[in-house]
Design a protein that fits this description.
alpha/beta; about 200 residues; Maf protein
Length: about 200
């Protein structure tokens, strides 16, 4: 049977696949994400997330042509401003101050690549309403969650203390975790990698 490779080192994406009893090997992709985005300036955040998912999967697939490679990516947009992972604790504080009282659009995408071609891709979006965050809470939060949130767009781990940032969440829970898992599982069944 063809094996599945996850082109990511993301703990949350690995945890989702583990919990769903999906057999896979994790091999992080080495992609210049800013370079990929440079050619997509006119694209929507969801389209960029999807393109990055394909690029990550394709990067790993070139060394593993017999495998199906799963790539995934997430983007955060708040008030029309795109946010990447925070570069420092101070940068995370700036992000959280900006997010306070606003709505985070979280765009998550996934793609399956085999050999040289993308065989499937999908995108989804969730909406997360951030409550008003006091300076005291932000400091308390950073003390508890840094540096772990330095690896996340949006400065939160929803499965940890990050849930305290929000007053309302609309959208699929797996999309919020960073990958549209139900769609991925359906695609893996179609590829014959899961029992249908």
């Amino acid at each position: 049977m063809t094996n599945l490779i996850l082109a990511s080192k993301s703990a949350s994406r690995r945890a989702m696949l583990d919990a769903a009893s999906v057999d896979y090997e994790a091999i992080p992709a080495d992609v210049d994400e800013r370079g990929v985005e440079e050619g997509l300036k006119a694209s929507s955040p969801s389209e960029i997330a999807e393109a990055l998912s394909v690029a990550k999967a394709a990067d790993v697939a070139k060394d593993h042509p017999q495998s199906v490679v799963l790539g995934s990516d997430s983007l955060v947009v708040v008030d029309g401003v795109r946010f990447d992972k925070p570069s420092s604790r101070e940068n995370a504080r700036e992000h959280l101050n900006f997010f306070s009282g606003k709505t985070i659009e979280l765009h998550s995408a996934a793609a399956l690549v085999r050999g040289g071609g993308c065989e499937w891709s999908h995108q989804d979006c969730a909406s997360l309403k951030v409550r008003e965050l006091s300076p005291e809470f932000i400091e308390h939060y950073l003390k508890a969650e840094w540096p772990q949130i330095g690896y996340t767009v949006g400065c939160f781990r929803i499965e940890a203390m990050g849930v305290q940032l929000f007053e309302r969440i609309e959208g699929d829970q797996f999309t919020v975790l960073g990958m549209p898992l139900l769609a991925v599982l359906g695609a893996l069944r179609e590829q014959g990698l899961l029992v249908a």
